[in-house]
Design a protein that fits this description.
Layout (H helix, E strand, L loop, with lengths): L9 H4 L2 H35 L3 H29 L1 H13 L16 E4 L5 E5 L2 E6 L5 E7 L4 E7 L6 E6 L11 E6 L12 E3 L5 E4 L4 E7 L5 E8 L7 E7 L2 E6 L6 E5 L2 E5 L11 E4 L4 E4 L5 E4 L3 E5 L5 E6 L3 E6 L3 E5 L3 E5 L5 E5 L4 E6 L5 E6 L3 E6 L2
Antiparallel strand pairs: 1-2, 2-3, 3-4, 5-6, 6-7, 7-8, 9-10, 10-11, 11-12, 13-14, 14-15, 15-16, 17-18, 18-19, 19-20, 21-22, 22-23, 23-24, 25-26, 26-27
Helix pairs in contact: 2-3, 3-4
Length: about 400
């Protein structure tokens, strides 16, 4: 009678390193399965949002499963031919190579404000310094510009032959005895710009606005403390500010229409309109509205006024075109599209006539910027991430 000696079970023969490989493979498989299950759990909401039926939902699930098999065969072959590291890098590139900027490097003191260049190829972010990044790569350009204090505004000036990002900051303490504020600038590629920058301002800082012709308007507290002086500088042409008008109150926002012939300034006394190209601009100053939270001109020439509970569009004469209700309006941008920050984390895109569409910010929004064409919207989220939304 013969006997057969059985070996030890397989799980007693494999080494510690082999156990680790098995655990890693199992975890990878679980993540792969989770990726598909997220679709299964979200399909109900997707059907409601996009309005498709059971047939389309089933087809999407089938395509997902079929392509997972195709991808496994294709990248298995590539892994054997090129190596598993390169094959893995290729799969990552497929998921991140669509031109969308997911996040920017964290700045030394976080991100406070954002601004796009006119062609959308650069994005400036500011905290206590102003840094410029390439879009969509997110790589830094040039040397960061140190500011006198955290940036209060960052804008892009599309001046012919003198394109620049412009940033404002208060004095180190914000008080008269603590030093003045400044208006600084950098070229789109991060190169340092000379005179007239930096422009020294009172310690309380300044508000700025730019026109498509490259005119930089600067609003600073008046000498009497109860007014705001508006001045202008043609970038690339002039080196000193010229007086435009004086309005009552402390300035909060400044805006101009596309032609640069009509301006509006928001102070704690209300919204005032003026015509900077008039032969005598001070005589054109008139009060349009009481105090609101923010103002901006759209490309259609309408003036948008943001209040806590509504957004209102006004024509050149001040007549109401339309109004939409809000919960807690905080920030307003208007160009080819209108974007509103409603509450701490709700970003809304406003369409013609006031139709609303919500973007998913995924956190508390500190600032929002929009490219000139309105297709790219960037948001500072949780003071450390910059998200980019690509709109159709």
């Amino acid at each position: 009678m013969s006997t057969v000696t059985l070996g030890a079970p397989w799980y007693r023969e494999i080494t510690r390193d082999q156990w680790r490989v098995l655990a890693a493979a199992k975890a990878g498989w679980m993540l792969d399965a989770m990726d598909f299950m997220l679709y299964a759990m979200a399909i109900g909401q997707l059907r409601t949002y996009f309005g498709f039926g059971d047939a389309t939902a089933g087809m999407l699930g089938t395509v997902t499963l079929v392509m997972s098999g195709v991808g496994g065969i294709l990248f298995g072959y590539l892994a054997d031919r090129l190596g598993r590291t390169r094959a893995l890098m290729g799969t990552i590139a497929l998921f991140s190579g669509d031109g969308a900027l997911r996040a920017l490097p964290k700045l030394r003191a976080g991100i406070a404000h954002l601004a796009f260049s006119d062609d959308g190829k650069q994005l400036a972010g500011g905290g206590v310094n102003l840094s410029i990044f390439a879009v969509p790569q997110g790589s830094p350009l040039g040397v960061a510009l140190d500011l006198t204090s955290p940036a209060t505004q960052v804008l892009f000036a599309p001046a012919p032959g003198a394109r620049a990002f412009v940033a404002t900051s208060k004095g180190p303490t914000g008080l008269p005895g603590g030093g003045g504020g400044a208006v600084n600038a950098r070229a789109p590629d991060g190169v340092v710009l000379g005179a007239p920058f930096p422009i020294v301002t009172p310690a309380a800082g300044a508000i700025i606005a730019v026109t498509e012709a490259g005119e930089l308007y600067v609003g600073t507290p008046g000498a009497d403390g109860g007014t705001t002086d508006i001045e202008v500088l043609r970038l690339g042409v002039e080196r000193t500010l010229r007086a435009v008008a004086r309005v009552p109150g402390a300035a909060r926002a400044l805006a101009f229409d596309r032609t640069g012939t009509l301006g509006a300034i928001l102070t704690d006394q209300g919204v005032y309109r003026f015509e900077p190209k008039d032969g005598d601009p001070p005589k054109t100053v008139s009060r349009m509205l009481g105090p609101v939270r923010d103002i901006a001109f759209g490309q259609d020439g309408a003036l948008y006024a943001l209040e806590a509970n509504r957004l209102t569009a006004l024509d050149r004469g001040g007549a109401v075109l339309w109004s939409v209700p809000l919960t807690d309006g905080r920030r307003l941008l208007a160009a080819a599209r209108t974007v509103v920050l409603d509450g701490p984390d709700r970003l809304l895109v406003v369409g013609p006539g006031g139709a609303l569409d919500e973007l998913g910010a995924g956190g508390a929004v500190q600032d929002v910027a929009m490219s000139l064409g309105g297709r790219r919207i960037a948001a500072v989220v949780d003071s450390k991430r910059a998200l980019l939304f690509e709109l159709p």
